[in-house]
């Protein structure tokens, strides 16, 4: 250890030796170079990071092609000597690929050489020369093994002399593969690899130096043997399936046609062929094989989706998911719920069970504890307005110790209609056999419990209600008669069942009366006495056969006269109705008698049902035993907040959109049952809050607001208090009830203890980055946000707020930044800590991660939960937190303990619209079945911005939970997962607990989110983290890592590229005439083979594979019938259109980020999207990512259909071609299909006006892109301003594809007269130049003469028009121009103009200097206008028909329609409601 190093020196001390030798000094104005790794924008990172995967697939492809090429493609040919010798050539390919890897290592790390040690640089150079040596040696020895070599093999065979021996090549291969053999040995023996990494032996150190950089990160990432076996088996099975499919479906069918094609000679082309004497038709072979090879490399993603779905479903089933998924299932298993609760959620051990069994053999205390938690759960849902008062009463479980009921008292919703059914059974029972009647009643346990409880509770109520002892004696005597008759099997003979319905009706009235409030006590008493006397008369005269005898015995004892006899049952304790315990019994008895069949469906609210069933289901899932609150781990929750809504203001609630809709009105219609429950709650005198404030909270708790998140997270505090109460409360407190603790002074110490323990174990910090600035701001919205945050701190005293405070130093005026922690005081916030920062954190890194980083120091405890601002929590889930934290103590297959605990989420925004439903299902499948497979068996789950729980000590000592470097760490959340794994962490996933999550609900919101994630994945591809993980994971875990992170987005991009390659290949074949002469030869069947190979790509493109995990997860948790129904409904609602559109978003932003950068955080907004997005807004957002590409595909398809003679008899050809048409149409019109009121005529007219204004406005400094086309166009090229020369060159190369149209089509024009001379193409450029020149003259004339010389300009335009007409007539009459040529010319020249624009954008600096930039911009404006009109016209046509708009509304809001809502009224405005209110 170097004691003199800078680490041990105070920052203010100056070291003389540092000044001398320059160590540890940073020269002002210069950046300190990056060490070990520098990001370079190139797709080659994918090969460098995952070279083993690409090598495997390339070698497999080579071997399969060699096998398929020989004989009939049977696998048996492998054992033939000649074929086997050719297969051995894969080792040469392996050497060349390793040489490529070594070359890339040097090129891509070159920028970091300034900070590397010489040993590392020497390692890179040595690897390069070793790879070159082996590539040369294997090539030479392989060539020498042939007897009569030809071609390139002959060249290598002449190098090095005349020796020739097959065994030499084999010997070299064996030596070359020794490192691979060693890698396999280390793979199957992880302990050996772990020992080697820790060894200090020099030979081992040398081997490790050769294998990997000498860094701490990336070591110790080995899995145990069980995990290794599971994910290895997963991938071996998958790869066998994939390779078999690729061989028999993609490769083998193309080999025979390819052989024939290479023999066919073509001498007549339909364009000017530059290589007419070329042999073997290599161009055709490339066109056929390129898309197939691309599918081969991409379709592993498809196979992964299939296998992950199957494995995830099996894992979920074994995890007991979905065992309680309906209310019916809950009712059937409710008897065991409280025992499962005891085992899972209360401290549990064998000793405790033995002691409890001795002290409480009936288990009443444990049942009471369950009832406390269950009832708090129901109370929380009532406060959230998910259930009504009646539903709350039906769901509550009684727990009082004063009851004398001899049976278990189930919640009333389980006993719904049991008493009415039992009464009907008894009334209709004709025989006198007691046993048969009792058998029918006791066959249903719930009915038996209901009958006995009803009987015993009624006697208890009546007995307590009467004050006269003689009257009580009558009640006791009646009960005794009932009990004796039952014991003696004489019940039906001594009691008349026909009187029970009348008795039931009277009892209902009696109980309703007892529950009513009253003003006139005397009148109320008289009414109660009358009904009570009627009840006793019915019992003694209509029900009992010997009831008169009981009364007579009573009279014999009584010495009163006849007059007094008539005044029986008048002495009652009317004030007993105010006793809470007694009133609870009356309420429950009334429910048992009156609740009908409809209560079976309680609760009616779908979210309440989901929460109840999930909570019950989770009790049967495997989870750690709960410790006591004192013994549990302490934890903090951290939430970053910027400027999102905290609490909706009254103004915002009533602010109308363009359709006259307010947020409040919208939510009232979306959540009608919850609004009714809210109204009912407001009528309760206990809730004396301001109504306006309550409405603001009601709305905010249904949006994605900070107040919703804070309320949800503070449930942890409530749960901890209740858990502490259950841990330490005595029996009287337990049976007295948790709700009454605050009112009971005897239990004050217990509640203070619970409060103190909860504060010790839980801390909640909200990092409100700009809270300090908002307090100082003069902006009203900022002030309201600050006030709302303060109100949250005052409402929740345990809440802490961290923010960055900016101040100016008084002496020098410099800005100083502090990280500040505050809490709520009496009326204002109170500062707790203030830490000086070296500068503004957000100037250094990305906003959100820096917001977390500056506040993490204020968190406490061993664990830290990362919660986003759009999340929610539930009381019943908060109760499981101490179970989850125990996962940190569990070792997994050895000594490793988790460092991140992954939790599942529930997406609560799925009911807003169809898009929200699609996103909800997609996200739900990812956070459940997707992450379930990632964690087990694949072991590559990371952190995805979800409610994961971090080992706080582990991560805070290893760089925190958020990497924040600008750009590259845009997706900061996943980097914390990378960081954890690279430093020896272990990540798990748990599904017995869930947290709420909001998602984007509108098309534009979703697209912005997908663009942000795709851009983030593009940056990840370039990062050192992905490189290190890809290099250090074993082969199969590396495959899992690739296909679940950047590989998914690369596959999405390749899917789109396959369509381009396929279409441009067909364009080449069609325009050159090769398709007609070769491909459609009936003896070849090339088209059919190609279509077979492309079919998997079409399936992926349609988004069907994204639906597979959804169907499996919905099937697991809600039943497969529901899953199939949801799948059908999703397709009817055009889910495939949506997923196909988002495929384009992923591909565009992922590719552009890698090529040029430009990824950035895109604010999506978290509001309710029921507004109409204007056409210009959609065009700005999707023009480059979708519309341009969609139009390009349409042109390609048109040209292919017009000039091609394709193999049209194949149904599979129809599928492939239609899938491309589907892709193009989806990309062009999906934003308008999923745009509310997208086909409303008035909206369409308004959109046209807005678009014309936007196109016509001039840009300039300070003009935002949404105000002017020029500003937007300039902003769209922002990524090109900062790209490298390589990026500009690539853009130019990609733009060259548009010249193919002109080159090919001009030779097919009638005016060309089948002339194939190159001069024809040259003349076409003369025509193009003339057109551009005329347009330029018109543009210049408009600017210079349009105002002052209007007449002259008009004359010029007339002359140009007549000149155009004259030239056209000459062309028609003299040169043979036809009408079809005019349309063909549009297809030829339009892409050329677009290519000129793209090249001009890439060369913008040069064009600015020579003065041509304005011309490019005007040409671009013309193209934008033309494209906009082409896209807008179908919308105009469809808007003419009113039924289209109605259909679209139904399509978008089917979820709401299924709930009986009138969305058309919401979209059209609340006119009817306004009329009614005005009347």
Summarize the structure.
The protein is mainly alpha-helical and 1479 residues long. It is built from 71 helices and ten strands.
Question: What do these coordinates show?
Answer:
The chain is mainly alpha-helical. Helix content is 64%, strand content 5%. It contains 71 helices and ten strands. Strands 5-4-3-2-1-6-9-8-10-7 form a ten-stranded mixed beta sheet, with helices on both faces. A hairpin with a 6-residue loop joins β3 (799-808) and β4 (815-824). It is globular and about 130 Å long. The model is unreliable at 1-30, 559-566, 1457-1461 and 1469-1479 (pLDDT under 50).
Number of strands: 10
Give the CA-CA distance, first to last residue.
87 Å
Low-confidence segments, given as residue ranges, are 1-30, 559-566, 1457-1461, 1469-1479
Query: What assembly state would you assign to the polypeptide chains in this entry?
Result: single chain
Shape: globular
Which descriptors apply to this entry?
71 helices, globular, disordered C terminus, 5% strand, ten-stranded mixed sheet, mainly alpha, 10 strands, 1479 residues, disordered N terminus
Protein topology:
Blueprint: H1 16-21, H2 44-49, H3 51-69, H4 81-87, H5 90-109, H6 118-144, H7 151-157, H8 166-176, H9 178-188, H10 190-198, H11 202-211, H12 225-263, H13 282-298, H14 300-318, H15 327-345, H16 350-359, H17 364-383, H18 389-395, H19 418-428, H20 434-442, H21 445-465, H22 469-487, H23 491-494, H24 500-515, H25 521-543, H26 547-557, H27 562-565, H28 580-594, H29 606-618, E1 635-641, H30 650-654, H31 663-670, H32 672-683, H33 691-700, H34 706-713, H35 715-728, H36 731-736, H37 748-761, E2 762-768, H38 771-776, H39 780-795, E3 799-808, E4 815-824, E5 829-837, H40 841-844, H41 847-855, E6 863-866, E7 871-872, H42 875-878, H43 881-885, E8 900-907, H44 914-935, E9 949-951, H45 952-956, H46 972-982, E10 987-997, H47 1003-1022, H48 1024-1032, H49 1035-1044, H50 1046-1072, H51 1074-1079, H52 1086-1101, H53 1104-1118, H54 1120-1132, H55 1135-1156, H56 1175-1203, H57 1211-1233, H58 1241-1256, H59 1269-1276, H60 1278-1281, H61 1285-1295, H62 1299-1305, H63 1318-1345, H64 1350-1373, H65 1379-1402, H66 1404-1410, H67 1413-1439, H68 1442-1452, H69 1454-1458, H70 1463-1468, ...
Parallel strand pairs: 1-2, 1-6, 2-3, 8-10
Antiparallel strand pairs: 3-4, 4-5, 6-9, 7-10, 8-9
